[in-house]
User: What shape does this take?
Amino acid sequence: MLTLQRKNRSVICFFLDLDGFKQINDLHGLSAGDEVLRTVSGRLVQAVRAEDTVARVGGDEFIVLVDEASSAADVELIASRMVSRQSEPLFASERTLQVGVSVGIGRFDGDDSKPLISVDELLNRADQAMYRVKRAGKNAFGY
Assistant: This one.
């Protein structure tokens, strides 16, 4: 089991799920869905630093790992940027489409007083936060 132990450093995991993606696939076809996923990926990469990690983990879900976000305000700025960028209209299969994103945030702050956590636990924290955002109305972020 891989665990996180980062002395005086934080690791933030953003777990993202697209809002309305199934409807795009159903109404406009899989090729439109693929174009949407490529656009979303590019927007996520633009919303974070070059040293951060953006990965599609399946279907319409992504994770973004950010090392060394110094404050809650920094984390919320990154999440806000991801939500607002995805809310912009996009062009796929000769149509203008719109997709939102629900973002859950998991955070690990490494210091000697904090117990180690597994990578799975960090992902689970972010995933559960994302589901809380979905239940609260979507197209937003939360812890």
